[in-house]
Design a protein that fits this description.
By secondary structure, the chain is an all-beta fold. Helices cover about 0% and strands about 35% of the residues.
């Protein structure tokens, strides 16, 4: 494990072996967990109660709020922002008291499933999931769930293709359309997939 001397790690944070925490990172506790062999880039903020799996890469200036779960093998590129409240306010209705910052009935969870990639400068909405090995293009705004293996881009993001485990697109189509049903192979690595509607099933997953 490597933790830069300028990083601030609060009490109650669990960090797995082989994980590297770079300069001016702030990880809040209690209840936050990071798995093994993760990389947390400079000036990234991780709130309390966040669960991060193994071999996750968070680049610089990533903001991860409470109620976010990031599964194994996920990449989150620089400048990405997670959110957890659809209708936030700074104060109570009479403007006399600050609204509490602790999680409450308005807090909504977000889950990034294994192998997914989130490009630089994205904004991730709440109460949704980004699917296994999905890919979110840079500067996208995610307002709805992203299915497994889908490539999404835009404001708000829409699906424009399907991507292999290796990251190479193997199907492309117009934004908002659906892929043609059938069996497909990745031209780069040869892995095979069955597609029906928005559902993508692996025919030759790695052992």
């Amino acid at each position: 494990m490597r933790i830069h001397p300028t990083a601030r790690i609060e009490e109650g944070v669990a960090i797995g072996p082989g994980t590297a925490i770079w300069d001016h990172v702030h990880i809040r506790g209690p209840g936050t967990t990071l798995g093994t062999e993760c990389i947390v880039g400079e000036k990234t903020y991780i709130a309390y109660g966040v669960a991060i799996g193994n071999r996750v890469k968070l680049n610089a200036f990533v903001y991860v709020c409470n109620a976010v779960t990031i599964e194994d093998g996920v990449m989150v590129a620089a400048g990405t922002i997670f959110t957890n409240d659809r209708f936030p306010r700074a104060t109570t209705t009479d403007l006399r008291r600050p609204w509490p910052s602790a999680p409450d009935e308005h807090t909504r969870p977000t889950r990034v499933r294994e192998g997914a990639t989130i490009g630089a400068g994205c904004v991730i909405g709440s109460d949704l999931a980004i699917g296994r090995f999905a890919m979110v293009g840079m500067a996208s705004v995610i307002t709805r769930p992203v299915p497994d293996f889908h490539l999404v881009v835009g404001h708000p993001a829409r699906s424009i293709g399907l991507v292999c485990r290796c990251g190479e697109p193997f199907v492309r189509y117009a934004p908002g359309a659906k892929p043609a049903a059938g069996d497909y192979s990745c031209a780069v690595c040869g892995l095979r997939y069955a597609v029906a509607g928005e559902q993508v099933r692996e025919l030759s997953p790695p052992a």
